[in-house]
Design a protein that fits this description.
eight-stranded mixed sheet, 8 helices, 8 strands, globular
């Protein structure tokens, strides 16, 4: 694995953990199967919020045309590719060169123009590049310094831009369901995928966003229905949740 500079978003153990299973990203029944099932609810939320806040037609074939997106911790591109299909000019970054290789090959096979880079958010921020929409989905609970990471994301966001964050709440319920249940009982995720002490409460996240000049616009819980096998939005934010925040305009 190619070495990358130390930064608040880089936890080498986390990078190595996901690098080892990089080939599994596009296997719908493999180690990332739960993300394949989870993806529709993430996509629907992103599309709903972006079209509403950028005054786009939600029924258009490519409603994100003309908007620059950044997918931080893009992995194999499960979320990056749908954004490109919806018209976004999208960059996907990940500190694991194995993940980026998997994502790049798959995008080429799908004839999608996606700018994939093996790098950290901090390195990209140093370039001065900025984006209309930043996706930070199931990433922040894996970084070394989440508060500093949020500040870096704010630097990467254009005025009036949106940042989406999806993560796990630090509750007893999340320990039982996301750690014991998902990893050890049901085997949805490899054992050790998450560390409960690194989960983030909505209040902590909102505080970090505010400290970086970003204002939360909306938030929602996400729950799993064992009878339908589907994830859906809900008021319950005790385990999984998503939110969107905005950077003030000039």
């Amino acid at each position: 694995m190619t070495a990358v500079p130390q930064s608040p978003s880089l936890d080498p153990a986390e990078v190595e953990k996901f690098s080892k299973i990089a080939a599994e990203w596009w296997n719908p029944t493999g180690k990332f199967a739960v993300l394949h099932v989870f993806n529709p609810v993430r996509l629907a939320y992103i599309k709903e919020q972006v079209t509403a806040r950028f005054a786009r037609d939600p029924f258009a074939r490519r409603p994100f045309e003309g908007l620059r997106f950044l997918d931080i911790g893009c992995g194999g591109g499960l979320l990056t590719e749908p954004m490109a299909r919806l018209g976004a000019e999208i960059t996907g970054i990940d500190p694991s060169d194995r993940n980026i290789a998997t994502a790049s090959v798959h995008a080429q096979e799908q004839d999608l123009a996606i700018d994939y880079r093996a790098m950290t958010a901090e390195a990209l921020a140093e370039s001065g590049d900025t984006f209309d929409v930043i996706l930070n989905m199931e990433v922040i609970e894996h970084v070394a310094d989440p508060k500093a990471f949020v500040a870096t994301c704010a630097r990467l966001l254009k005025p009036n831009g949106l940042i989406f964050v999806a993560t796990l709440n630090r509750t007893l319920k999340s320990f039982g369901l996301a750690i014991v249940g998902a990893e050890y009982v049901l085997g949805w995720l490899p054992k050790g995928t998450h560390q409960w002490e690194k989960f983030i409460t909505p209040e902590e996240l909102e505080g970090w966003l505010g400290a970086s000049g970003l204002k939360q616009q909306d938030r929602t819980g996400v729950t799993y229905n064992p009878f339908s096998g589907e994830w859906r939005r809900a008021r319950d934010m005790d385990v999984n949740y998503m939110l969107v925040a905005q950077k003030p305009g000039n």
